[in-house]
């Protein structure tokens, strides 16, 4: 199985901050990586797929980069509604595997 | 609009069986894989496996193989996950989700909370 190592596990930030979350795959996954946001008591929502393809133009402050084994999710200017937990997912092979999650707090 | 609507919360005892459902609408149900994801209380997301409604091909995560069974009923656009003998450690929120053309999970159900306690 491909292991996904996400860091940090949590971070504290302020509105307007630039935030970066990283995800490292144990094997080359090309660009087959997605990022999800999950708010408390809600289902996750996809932000990014194909490592850098944004789900919606409304999410333009979110960007994804990387390929192979190292990936990054960046929030250019943190908004109040962005305080949540973020997960990466590799979909190169079965079984799919998630990172452990990064909780973004105020 | 793509929607996945899951069945309601369940409370069961260890050893009991359970089947929860996920009704898909707003897209061609037969074309896209439906996956299941577990989230234990206060923990992260775990990919359980996936089933293709067109031919019922399934892929299970080794962590769940043998303990859960996926199925679909295309006539009513519904996917299921079933346990024959629940454990307390099955207590979790379970999400169904579609796997889109890109291969990643795109749409999610609202989740079904399963509580297993004696």
Task: Report on this structure.
The complex is a heterodimer of chains A (106) and B (118). Chain A contains no helices and eleven strands. With 106 residues, chain A is mainly beta. In chain A, the strands form two sheets. In chain A, strands 2, 4, 5, 6, 9, 10 and 11 form a seven-stranded mixed β-sheet that branches. In chain A, strands 1-3-8-7 form a four-stranded antiparallel β-sheet, with no helix packed on it. In chain A, β9 (85-90) and β10 form a beta hairpin. The relative contact order of chain A is 0.34. With 118 residues, chain B is mostly beta strands. Chain B has no helices and eleven strands. Chain B has strands spanning 3-6, 10-12, 18-25, 34-39, 45-51, 58-60, 69-73, 78-83, 92-99, 105-108, 112-116. In chain B, a hairpin with a 6-residue loop joins β5 (45-51) and β6 (58-60). Chain B is globular and about 40 Å long. The chains are: A mainly beta (106), B mainly beta (118).
Short overview:
Chain A is mainly beta and 106 residues long.
Properties at a glance:
heterodimer, A: 106 residues, mainly beta, seven-stranded mixed β-sheet, four-stranded antiparallel β-sheet, B: 118 residues, 0% helix, globular
Element string of chain A (H = helix, E = strand): EEEEEEEEEEE
Euclidean distance between termini CA atoms of chain A? 34 Å
Measured by residues with Cβ under 8 Å of the partner chain's Cβ, the largest interface is:
A-B, 24 and 23 residues
Query: What is the first-to-last residue Cα distance of chain B?
Result: 40 Å
Overall mean pLDDT of chain B stands at 96
What is the radius of gyration of chain A computed over CA atoms, rounded to a whole number of angstroms? 13 Å
Annotation, overall tally of beta strands of chain A = 11
């Amino acid at each position: 199985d491909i292991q996904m190592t996400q860091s940090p596990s949590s971070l504290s930030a302020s509105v307007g901050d630039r935030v970066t979350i990283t995800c490292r795959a144990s094997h080359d996954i090309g660009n087959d990586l997605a990022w999800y946001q999950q708010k408390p008591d809600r289902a996750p929502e996809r932000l990014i797929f194909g490592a850098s393809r944004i789900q919606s133009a409304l999410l333009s402050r979110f960007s994804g980069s990387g390929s192979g084994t190292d990936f990054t999710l960046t929030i250019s200017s943190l908004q109040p509604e962005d305080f949540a937990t973020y997960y990466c997912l590799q979909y190169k092979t079965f079984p799919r595997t998630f990172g452990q999650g990064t909780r973004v707090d105020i | 609009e793509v929607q996945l609507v899951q069945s309601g919360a369940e409370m069961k005892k260890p050893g009991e069986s359970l089947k929860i459902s996920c009704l898909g609408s707003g897209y061609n149900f037969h074309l896209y894989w439906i996956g299941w994801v577990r989230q234990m209380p206060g923990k992260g997301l775990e990919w359980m496996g996936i089933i293709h409604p067109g031919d019922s091909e399934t892929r299970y995560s080794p962590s769940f193989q043998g303990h859960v069974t996926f199925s679909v009923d295309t006539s009513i656009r519904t996917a299921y996950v079933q346990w024959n003998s629940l454990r307390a450690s099955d207590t979790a929120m379970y999400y169904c989700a579609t796997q889109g053309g890109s291969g990643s999970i795109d749409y999610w159900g609202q989740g079904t909370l399963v509580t297993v306690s004696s």
